[in-house]
Specification:
The protein is an alpha/beta fold. It starts with a strand and ends with a helix.
Amino acid sequence: MGILVGLERVSQEWPGKQVLVDQTIGINEGERIGIVGRNGDGKSTLLQLVSHALEPDSGTITYRNNITVGMIGQEDALSDSDTVCHAVVGDTPEYVWASDPTVRAIIAELLADIDWNGLVGELSGGQRRRCDLARVLVGSWDVLLMDEPTNHLDLHAIRWLAEHLKRRWQPGQGALLVVTHDRWFLDEVCEHMWEVHDGVIDPFEGGYSAYIQQRVERQRQAAVMEERRQNMLRKELNWLAHGAKARTSKPKFRIDAAMELIADDPPLRNPIELKRMAVGRLGKQVIEMHGVCAGYEGNEILHDIDWLIGPGDRYGILGENGAGKTTLLKVMTGAMQPSRGVRKIGASVKLGMLSQQLEGLSAHDDWRVSELLGTYKRYLNVDGKPQTPEQLLERLGFERREFPTFIKDLSGGQRRRLAILCVLMEEPNVLVLDEPGNDLDTDMLAVLEDLLDTWPGTLLIVSHDRYLMERVTDDQFALIDGCVRHVPGGVDEYLDLLDERAKSRVEPENRPSSSGSELTQGASDERKEAGQAASRMGNAERRALKKRFDAITRRLEKVSGRPDELRDELQHIDATDYQALLDKQAEIAVAERELEELETEWLELSEVLEP
């Protein structure tokens, strides 16, 4: 197992912050490395340095034998004027990429709901992200660098990506470096961890769970050494202060020893801990929904939902992107009225809502942090002690010098931490959190989980972070086809349900028959079942299938005559040019196979969509 990329004495500094200091480390063939650290400590910078997108201030980064390195950054590298097809596969001929089952699987998973011939500039932010991810995954790379690859992916797509990366290379081949705050993903994919902090890179063996265990053990050992040092320090300082009165000066070597101990005193790291806020009493009724339906402009998203949420319930809400999770939260909290049905909110309920977009902060972008804190109570009771908002914010990792900063100038992680604090300072008794883990590093996520573990009120949370979901909620409910369904088996059961639903829609049942009448009856039964499945589909799912159906229809019109065109070309090839004849035969086989697959899928979808 040789080294693929070597970093030797690498240093990098940004204005006001030294990101890396004289670091030497290597990326070996076969390694799957997860990179963790606090926001702003240099994880993305490290990837940019490894990819040669950024040159280090000092040191060298060396590739072995002209290896290929692919990278997906936090910002996509797509052109608005490009088609999705060209953005993903470039100038590669269709018969080449279409004949690769791995490429087809990537496109089918990430881009099934996207017009293959549409413009990149017309895509939403999440669609652009998936398009950029597909662009990188279809390439053949010796080293793959990924910065927050799970952004904009739902739980099903995250699981697929993890499985793809685990089998992308043969054991002992290729290398992966991934920066992500999704701890389940790190545990599932990575076999090594790098922690970037205070200008250094600390390597750890194993995935995220093993990394946490090793880090705790390192901290324990460091604490033992620090205690010994502090004991020695106290003795030396005591000697300096209470030495023999007869002496007019201290021995210089003792003074130097004491000063050296003081100089080695490490800087205090900002603790990011949240204390449980006092909550008001909840009555017996919190939120009730009976036959609730809701949607937008005649498009019904939620169908006949019956759900009772009581005091102290801790529920996680699962669902695919676009399934209506945010709509469900709006209806539950009273921000949106149901089109039908009854929703009741208890009289004693005091809601605390954290949205994905952090609208509460956006309305105060021109305020300074200190001005926003001044709008809350001067003191709040935390663990029986009065605490000011400023003290609480310091516990969340902010420094006093950051208090005059305008809210619009804060980083994504800072904005979310401030928003969480603002929600808690309202002292709610029902917390509703929509993707609370966005923009938070792994340390802050652990703090958030610690807070929610001891939250005494009612908790409702939507998140694609399965580690967070399974840690802080007692029960999970899935929003599937506009209906809420309890999933006692948690995220795994939910993902199995999605797999079964997809399989039942795409793969028709094959019934053996020995006579024409049985065959006719079987076809009739299949059409009947397809019609029943179509009637059970929600509008969003029907639109997605219809969009796929239309795309296949257009594709069929384009390629239906391709095999005949290739056969005509075959007739004009010199009969003595055996290689050209073989190549053309291979193109014909690929075209015929593609046409057959498209026709099969077109027939299956037409049966499902048939009214």
